[in-house]
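Narrative of activities, Objective 1.

The group set out to show that a structural description can be obtained from nothing but a protein's sequence at a throughput compatible with the screening campaign. Below is one input-output pair from the validation batch, recorded exactly as produced.
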Amino acid sequence: MGWDLLGLQPSLGEPAASEEVLTRSFGQLAPDAWYNVPGASRYRRFQRFSKVADSWEYADDYMFKQSLEYNVLVGDLERTFEPIDKEVMETGLLQLFAERQAAHWGIDLKAYEVAVHQFRVEVVGDHAGTSTPEGIHQDGHAFVAIVHWESHNIRGAESRIYNLSKRLLFSHTLRNRAEALLINDRMCFHDVSELHALDGQIGWRDVFVFDWNLKGDK
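Output recorded for this entry:
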């Protein structure tokens, strides 16, 4: 199967303070200058890292580029984002999530580079927002994981998986902390339905998206 749901919730042994660091960091993301949806905003940070021997190595290149084949809105553009906050990386939770994803897929963690996008999509009033303004798509990676962190005062944002003919196969709304949708990006398309704020107030959805590529692949 080209997708699966996985609970990445940190074990009871993980300090609650680390989770609070992640929660707080979503309120400190930078605006995404390439997101253009009326009445909605997207904020993000970005980090690449990989496992070498028994250590994690962190890239200092924060440019992200997708082919126009995969992103019809901003494909072929070099987009540079601010790095994920050092305090977030020092919790070790993102690295832990990567290890659990690799174990679930049965892949060699050391053979891959992981790129993590930290997103908040915020909506106000009666406007609709979307996490995927490019529509039904693939991302151009080997694997993708959408890790939900928090949803506040919203409805919608249903994750949907399609086959290569874009026929709907599966849908699920991520709402639990560290609940993850794992996707084989070579086998599936995906998107997320619109999200709306409840009662005309402000609402948001916070997620981490993990991109997996074999080292050396562009």
